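Thread title: Can someone regenerate the structure for this chain?

I was given the following input by a collaborator and told the matching structure tokens would be attached. They weren't. Posting the sequence so someone can regenerate them.
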Amino acid sequence: MSTQDDPAAAFVRELEHWRRHRGLSKKDLARRTGFHPSYVSHIESRRHHPTAEFARRAEVALESGNRIWQRYVAYAERRAQGGRLPFRDLAAAPPPIGSHLVIEDEQVTLSLVDGWYELHVRRVLHSLGTLPITRCTVRIDIDRFPDDQDRSLAFHSRHPLTLDEVDFRATIGDGEPEPLTWRVMHRRDAFIELVLLFTSNGVSLPLYPGERTVINYAYRVPKWKFGNWLQRDIRLPTSRLLVRLNFPATTRLTVWGSETSFTAENCADVRQHRPERDEVLAYEWEIPRPRLRAQYRLNWRYADETR
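Best answer:
Regenerated them for you:
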């Protein structure tokens, strides 16, 4: 097994990343977690196996957004499958203190309709930790010329995104969803970040520990502003990602995908199929366990475009 696929190595990489990101030495982390400095050193050098208690305390100390804890769970599950760790140890491990959110399933659909790119996202959210979730953030991020930064900056300064044109909408719940309250957090010419507040018509709808809910949101951007790419950045632990493109069959697209992480860049196969409507072609890319902090990107080229 390669170290890239080894859950123990992935746990150590996550731990080291967040320790350095927080500006802590091994001694600092040991002091915050209540472990001896030599134990932290042994964990990072993989001379000792991580334990649930250490992972829980490290998550609390480093506030990784549950990433460290999820790496430990993946590691513990692998050991349990191999018969090297009793399964009851997993159930006995308490969740990290605080509010932590996991995306169990994310489905992203981008359609080209009458000169507009219309994007719809469906997320199944699971609340972990000990505190309720009351909000989450989403981003609208476009780049007309991603390979020419100066040209793109000049273009978007002349043609900035506006809230009116994106027509953002969001709902919470499955079956009979309710409209979500939202507000703008940050805004630039080609970028809008919004926070979705778990309230609807003045009523609070917190996601309590252990509960799940469904979030849907949608927006649109004129085709001439968007660029020929769609990227998902994995900022929260995600169990499954599915990206779809729905384009008129007359566009005759060439589509390819790529995965970029801190350690590698890989190409991906994108499946093409013809849905029920003959005038539309669909392209699908499914990623069963996307990597944290990795980027998954679809690019396309129209038949009438030059390379």
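The mean pLDDT is 86.
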